[in-house]
Amino acid sequence: MIRITRRVFTDLAFYMMGFGLFIGVVFPFFVMLLGVPASIAMQFWFFAVCVIAGIIVGAVNILLARSVVGSRLRSISARMR
Predict the structure, then answer these.
(1) What average pLDDT does the segment 15-41 reach?
(2) How far apart are CA 55 and CA 59, in angstroms?
(3) Does some domain include residue 4?
(4) pLDDT per position as a tens digit, 32-47
(5) Per-residue pLDDT, 81
(6) Phi/psi at 63 (5° precision)
(7) Global pTM value
(8) Handedness of CA 10, 14, 19, 24 (dihedral sign)
(9) Nearest-5° angle of CA 26, CA 57, CA 39?
(10) Which DSSP string do the residues of the chain spell out, in sequence order?
(11) Domain count, the chain
(12) Domain range holding 72?
């Protein structure tokens, strides 16, 4: 993976948000493959809600990673001192 910043969690946040945005953009096309008519799947509001949902999922993943992994790293770091 390409490093964007010097901080691992910041890089992870960028990748998680990017992946969430990607899924939000791709999802309306995927539901058309499942049989949902394009007249519904390509409506502005449906497309916008899918993108917003992807961004929310990315943000929640960031919070989970910082909470779970970050707390563990802080614990390990404290024991090393």
Answers:
(1) 95
(2) 6
(3) no
(4) 999 999 999 999 999 9
(5) 82
(6) -60, -40
(7) 0.81
(8) positive
(9) 35
(10) ----SS-HHHHHHHHHHHHHHHHHHHHHHHHHHTT--HHHHTSHHHHHHHHHHHHHHHHHHHHHHHHHHHHHHHHHHHHH-
(11) 1
(12) 11-80
Residues 6+ apart with CB under 8 A from 5: 11, 14
**Residue 45 falls within a domain, yes or no?**
yes
Residue 3 resides in a domain: no
20 neighbors 59 (Cβ within 8 angstroms): yes
CA 19 – CA 34 distance, rounded (Å): 22
Say if residue 1's pLDDT is above 80: no
Q: pLDDT tens for residues 48-61?
A: 999 999 999 999 99
Whether 50 is in a domain gets the answer: yes
